[in-house]
Amino acid sequence: MGRYVRADGLDIWTEQVGTGPDVLLVGGLGDTVESWHFQLDGLADRYRLTAFDNRGAGRTAMPEDPVSIETMADDAAALLRALDIPSAHVAGFSGGSIISQELALRHPRLVRSLVLQSTWPVPDAYLRRWGLFIRWLAETAPAERTFLEGFYLDIYTPRAHNDGTVDRFIEDVLAFPHKQTTENLNRFLDAVLDHDTTNRLPDIDVPTLVLAGGRDSTSRPELGRAVADAIPGARFAVMEEEAHQPFQEIPDEWNARVDAFWRATQTRTT
């Protein structure tokens, strides 16, 4: 069961499960702890996993203060400190991967390793235009279902659309009682599109695994490759048949990849 954790003046909705080395899971645009369902279930026998709702998503309120990636990275750091976690393996996807990059840059002692799924150093013209399209879609879609059906075209593979997986995800989202407002979605989106870590990525000095989906039309493999090339010693892998969120579509394979990476990381640091 989740609970609120008071962290630097913000009540952050948090779920923590399992035992073992600490892992912090950082979600993307509008995503809540539920987006990590397959990891919270599938890895809890080996790790103590902490997932949370970013400010303005799910059950965590959006303060009136300006929203930035730096602020959300500080939220994550404050959460770890409030939970007395001295350092954690950090995994983030999409916008959450950008928060994770910034967490490692601003609070390096809290980060033991990084897994960056569907990431980039700075939005290129294509990704920026896609983000602006999503903003328009959220503002003009006639219904929540219509928005999700359009948004998920770029998030999940045709396989997942055709086999009913996406339909099940949509039903879960529609039933979720803690809706993100369009205003808060746009504030998060604006923060992500304005952020650039290109020149600072070489300062990240923890083991890093960058994963990309070969069929991801948004954060395309070349963007992930640019991140991996900039971080000293980072590993890069393309999951050729996957899209933006393979940790949900093929969770067993994704969990096995990151588990192997975390185990190797612990072997090197113990």
TrEMBL record:
GO terms for molecular function: triacylglycerol lipase activity. Gene3D superfamilies: alpha/beta hydrolase. InterPro entries: AB_hydrolase, AB_hydrolase_1, AB_hydrolase_fold. Residues 23-245 form the AB hydrolase-1 domain. It holds the Pfam family Abhydrolase_1. One of its GO terms (biological process) is glycerolipid catabolic process. It comes from the Bacteria. This is Pimeloyl-ACP methyl ester carboxylesterase. It comes from Streptomyces capillispiralis.
